[in-house]
Each structure stands twice: as C-alpha cells, then as structure tokens.
C-alpha cells in the first residue's frame, strides 16, 4: 500500500528560469541594482558659426580657430588646476603660531572656594493646603458641637391665650348652574353643505369649459381638414417598371437524403420478450408434469 501511495504522488518538475529576473530592478525575482550609464560628452553647438561671415581664406581661418581653441583649453586647464590646488590647501588645517615674547604668561588667580550649601526644609504647597484643611475641619467640628449643646438646653415656650393669626371663615360656594350644550354639529353640517355646493358648481363650470374647448378644437380641425382637401391636387400612381424581371436560378445544394427514424418499437419488443419468457417456461414445465 505504501508503494502504491508513493507511486500515486505527483513527481516534482521544476519550471524553466525566467531570464528577465536578472535584468529587472526588483519587479521579478531578486533585487538587481543596475548601474547608471556613463554620460557621453557631446560637442557644443554655438551660434557663432552662423553669425560669422564666410572668411576669405578658409585654411587660415581654420588654423587660427584651432590655435585659439588650444589656447582656451590651456587656460581652462590651468584655472582648474589652480582651483584644485587651492581646495586641497584649504582642506589642510594649520595651527596658529605661538607669539614670540620674552614675558611670562599672565596666570589668573585661583578663585576662592565657595561655602557649602545649607540644607533648608521644602515649602510645599501640599503641606499648606493640608494645614488649612485640618483647621477648617476643626472649626466645623467645634461649630457643630456648640449647636448640639444649644439644642440640649430645652426651654418651654409660654402658653398663648389668644391666637395671633385668626383662621378665616369658610365661604360657601354657590352650586353650579346646569346649561344646555351648544354643539357644533349643526353649524358644521350647514358649512359642509355650502362647501359641497360650491365644489359641484366649480366642477360643472370646469366640465362646461372642457366641452366648449373640445368642440371649438373639433370645429377648427374640421375647417383645417376641409381647407387642406381643397388645396390638395390628385396625382396618379406611377406604373411599375419591369426592366429587370425576377429569374429563379437552380439551387447548388445537394438533394436531401432520407433517414429512417429511430423509433423505440424494436426495444419495446425486446423488453416484452424478456419479460414474457419466465412465464412461458413455467407454463411449459407445468404442462409436461401434467
């Protein structure tokens, strides 16, 4: 079974290497940092050749131009060389020379030693706030104790013989008078009848206006149709042309070959024969036994 399983395992097959990986800049495969191309020097295109008039002697002018160009190149080379030498000199640092004197250097006096720092307690705001809060709590407690002491000293009030605030006598309110209800049903029914009457009048006016406009439009259409019929001129239909009659051509397709239909009669007969065989065998055996 293990051998069969090992045989069924698909075999490993490496894919071909894409050569574009070595030319890409990290898009495909490993990163490849390509070097920039070297700048190719090109000649300057001055407009002096177009502005200068054609010389009388071309050979002399060419010689003079070459000498002038060589002199300019020489000057440019010397200037660049001087600049390079100056830059190299500026990079080299030089120490300032020590002044030549016979006097001894002035040594400043040694400063006096400072006194030691004396420690002092910190004046924190939290301590001040704590003292104020404790003092406030003590004052509050003392005040409450004084109030409780005053409350313990009970002193009865004198008995009042006369009531200083007399109670007013009760006034009897008269009974409510019963009146008939004034309903808005009657008034609303009258208003609704008037509203419905106005709506019907408006509908009748709108219907009459639509009928009048429709009749006027029909009359105008009849007038326009009659006027158009008066202005129209009858024209006879042209005779059809028979210059290019239709000529049927013989078809190039092959004749249709008849095919027999695939009916299911044969299969049904075979099925009936197979189903009827067992009964026939039984009947023959029974007849022989009899």
From TrEMBL:
Q: Which GO terms describe its cellular component?
A: nuclear microtubule; spindle
Example GO BP: regulation of mitotic spindle organization
The organism sits in which domain of life? Eukaryota
InterPro entries found in the cross-reference section? TPX2_C (IPR027329), TPX2_central_dom (IPR027330), TPX2_fam (IPR009675)
Ranges for domain TPX2 C-terminal: 181-257
One function term, GO molecular function aspect = protein kinase activator activity
Where does the signal peptide begin and end? none
Q: Where in the cell is it found?
A: Cytoplasm, Cytoskeleton, Spindle; Nucleus
Matching Pfam families, A to Z? TPX2, TPX2_importin
Which residue ranges does the record annotate as region Disordered? 92-114, 237-270
**Domain annotation TPX2 central: ranges:** 2-46
Q: Which family does it belong to?
A: Belongs to the TPX2 family.
Q: Which protein are we looking at?
A: Protein TPX2
| Origin organism lineage | Eukaryota, Viridiplantae, Streptophyta, Embryophyta, Tracheophyta
């Amino acid at each position: 079974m293990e051998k069969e399983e090992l045989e069924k395992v698909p075999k490993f097959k490496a894919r071909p290497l894409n050569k574009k990986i070595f030319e890409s800049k990290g898009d495909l495969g490993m990163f490849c940092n390509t070097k920039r191309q070297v700048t190719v020097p090109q000649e300057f295109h001055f407009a002096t050749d177009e502005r200068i008039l054609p010389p009388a002697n071309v050979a002399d002018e060419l010689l003079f131009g070459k000498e002038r160009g060589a002199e300019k190149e020489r000057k440019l080379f010397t200037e660049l060389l001087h600049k390079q030498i100056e830059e190299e000199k500026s990079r080299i640092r030089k120490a300032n020379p020590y002044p030549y004197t016979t006097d001894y250097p002035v040594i400043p006096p040694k400063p006096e030693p400072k006194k030691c720092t004396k420690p002092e307690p910190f004046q924190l705001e939290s301590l001040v706030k704590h003292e104020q809060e404790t003092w406030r709590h003590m004052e509050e407690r003392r005040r409450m104790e004084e109030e409780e002491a005053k409350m313990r000293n009970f002193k009865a009030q004198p008995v009042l013989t006369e009531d200083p605030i007399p109670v007013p006598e009760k006034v009897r309110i008269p009974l409510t008078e019963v009146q008939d209800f004034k309903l808005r049903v009657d008034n609303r029914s009258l208003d609704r009848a008037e509203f419905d009457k106005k709506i019907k009048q408006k509908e009748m006016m709108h219907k009459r206006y639509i009928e009048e406009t429709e009749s006027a439009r029909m009359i105008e259409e009849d007038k326009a149709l009659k006027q158009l019929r008066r202005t129209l001129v009858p024209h006879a239909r042209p005779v059809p042309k028979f210059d290019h009659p239709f000529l049927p051509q013989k078809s190039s397709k092959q004749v249709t070959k008849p095919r027999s239909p695939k009916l299911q009669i044969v299969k049904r007969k075979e099925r009936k024969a197979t189903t009827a065989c067992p009964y026939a065998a039984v009947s023959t055996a029974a007849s022989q036994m009899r």
